[in-house]
Structure formats: C-alpha cells, structure tokens
Amino acid sequence: MTSKLVSTIVNYHNKKPEKFRDLKRKEKEIAQTHFALTDTVNDLMMNNIPITSAKVIEEKTKELYDLEIGEKKVRKMVKTELGLHYRRVSEVPVQSNSERCLVLR
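Above: the chain sequence. Below: its structure as tokens.
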C-alpha cells in the first residue's frame, strides 16, 4: 500500500466513520452466518441425517443458532464455500420394492 492510498482511506474514514462501522458489522454478520452454516452442515453429516434440500439446512440452522438464512443463500454458500452439491431425491413408487418387481428386475 502506498502512503497516498493510506492517507486517502484515513481521510475518508474521518469524514464518514459510519460507513466503516456498517462495513465491519456486515463482515461480522457474514462470518457468523458462515460459521453457523458450516457447523450445521457438519453436524448433519456427522449424525448421518440426509440433506435432501436446502430447507433442511435452513431449519436446522434456525433451530441451533436462531439465524434466518434464505434457501437461495444456503444453496449458494453450500455450493461455493463448502464445495458440496446435491441432487433432489426422486420419489420411488411403493410397488417398485414389492417382491414381484424385485424378482422381475
């Protein structure tokens, strides 16, 4: 960082300190959300609870941390930050597991 850049940042901070407070608050909220989501997903995986949709993660996070995270945000964070992907579970008709169908397969 150059001294000119540092000087510009300090001057801007002195003129509008509320902007920097808001920025710090947002960073803290994002860090809390990330921690809660990571911990929730790890907890679900360690307890062998199937994660069939983002709604499951959202509800468990609300239960454990009292944080309301939208489904879109959950999907985005799970995909980008945790590197996890999931496919929706398709329903299987009850007859497919009958003895007749199992023999025919």
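The longest helix spans residues 17-46.
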